[in-house]
Amino acid sequence: MRIARVCGIEFRVSPFFLLFLLAYASVGLLRETLLVFWVVLLHELAHVAAAACFGIRTERVELLPFGGVASFSEPLVASPAREAIIAVCGPAHNFAFAYLAAVLERSGFVSSSLARFLVETNIAIGLFNLLPGIPLDGGRILRAALVPTLGTVGASRLASAVGRVLGLCILMAGGIMAYAGHCNVLLPVLGGFLVFAASREARAVSWVRVRDTLRKKREFLAAGTMSVNLLAVHEKACLKDVVRHFVPGKLNVVLVFDTELVIRTLACELDVLKAMSEHGPDALAATIAR
Predict the structure, then answer these.
(1) Are 89 and 141 in contact (CB under 8 A)?
(2) Which pLDDT band holds residue 77 (cuts at 50, 70, 90)?
(3) Fewer CB atoms inside 10 A, N or C side of the chain?
């Protein structure tokens, strides 16, 4: 649900977050509800500020339980180090906020009950977001660490799978607690949110590489030069295996060889993606030359 548009950024609230807030408000915790909303918003604005430092424009922010998802003008996976830095800024902000609340409480500027709630909420949000599964910040840090080994798509799929597993574990924990007579509305909401959001990101993985390629095309045409990652590929290699060796941030160029080590064709990554679109990911590299 869209709630506002500020400085060109569209702010939305997930239905899961609305359920979370309603659960708080329904038991008479209206003040706490507003504070949680504010803490989550500041967490996401920390990501927005970090992205702006790299010259990346934020297009949309969707608030979710214990965090949010920001959509940027370019895919962050193009630079794993940059994605990791932007991701870690969210939890870092929460821990700094918790420390500030404790300092203000000791100085007498805020009440003990308010400070305790802010400290506990920020620490909980910060730690939860460091869990290694997409869409959480820890999942994005994990993906950034795996990109050099598994490639953009492989790392994204693994981090999304971890996110789904974490969500299912939280749902199971909620079910076990309910069976034992300790009903906790928060756990099913969080578990459902993780499974839903991780599955959504997994479905969007195929578009990550396309967006990255189009971005590199624009940058190359604007700058006139770009670093190249050169790959030697046998004509019987599967296209899905070829793209796993693509390097984000570089223009990937493929040399297709036959069994006599004669070059069949020279192609850029856009040609490879077109071949995958036309013939499927299991098609052979020889189809690029046709």
Answers:
(1) no
(2) low
(3) C
Backbone angles phi, psi at 275, to 5 degrees: -65, -40
* Distance in angstroms between the alpha carbons of the first and the last residue of the chain: 47
Pick the closest to residue 121 from 33, 50, 229 (CA basis).
Answer: 33
Residue pointed to by tokens 């909980």: 124
**What is the bridge-based pairing of β-strands 9-13 and 58-64?**
parallel
Residues forming CATH 3.10.580.10 domain(s) in the chain: 227-289
Closest listed residue to residue 287, CA positions, set 232, 236, 226: 236
Q: Between these two residues, 23 and 229, which has the higher pLDDT value?
A: 229
Q: Does domain 227-289 have CATH number 3.10.580.10?
A: yes
How far is Cα 94 from Cα 212, in angstroms, rounded to an integer?
30
pTM of structure: 0.78
253: tokens are 């160029």
Residue 289 has pLDDT above 70, yes or no: no
For 230-275, how does the pLDDT look when each residue is reduced to its tens digit (9 = 90+)? 999 999 999 888 888 887 778 899 999 988 888 888 998 888 888 8
